[in-house]
Automatic annotation (TrEMBL):
Protein name according to UniProt: GOLD domain-containing protein
Keywords carried by this UniProt record: Endoplasmic reticulum, Membrane, Signal, Transmembrane, Transmembrane helix
Family as reported in the entry's similarity comment: Belongs to the EMP24/GP25L family.
Species for this entry: Engystomops pustulosus (Tungara frog)
Pfam families per record: EMP24_GP25L
Subcellular location: Endoplasmic reticulum membrane; Membrane
PROSITE patterns referenced in this protein's UniProt entry, alphabetically: GOLD (PS50866)
Regions crossing the membrane: 169-191
Membrane topology term: Single-pass type I membrane protein
Domain GOLD residue range list: 25-111
Amino acid sequence: MVGLVLLLLLPGTGAISFYLPADSKKCLKEEIHKDVLVTGDYEVAELPGAVTHLKVTDSAGHILYSKEEAKKGRFAFTTDDYEVYEVCFESTASADAVRSPDQLIVLNVKHGVEAKNYEDLAKAEKLKPLEVELRRLEDLTDSIVKDFSYMKKREEEMRDTNESTSLRVLYFSAFSMFCLVALATWQVLYLRRFFKAKKLIE
């Protein structure tokens, strides 16, 4: 039984928690740009006789992360293309188990600058706090620039599509007018010939 599908539209909104009924499936989808780091922390409340599986896939169905009997953990991947990514939790209950209550699931998905661990980066590269903050601001700036570039590209694609559609509508309108004029001319000539044959007109 497929459950409710939730759309994550706002990045960085913190953890999401929801209840998953037994023998059901709930998925969360989000559109993410290309070459973006995505991390997710999840925790599934343990209930007797209930097992929950976790699967992360892209729009083509490729499995990016899969965990049988998921309880608590973390996943991470880098996006290959701009598309919709899906995180699905599926609960199965054993046949002899008593009707169990819904499982509480807590999921926190981050991507882009929010997904990077700057503390580990500072330790690895021996950066000072100010340098870490500058690196974070640099990454944030790059992310904003990429977003604007993508928006500009989408605007150009939409404009080209709009112009192409307008041109096609113009051609179709002209063709329709030509067909109407041709049909009207044919009808006039046909009726004239018909009336002449009936000797109603000379």
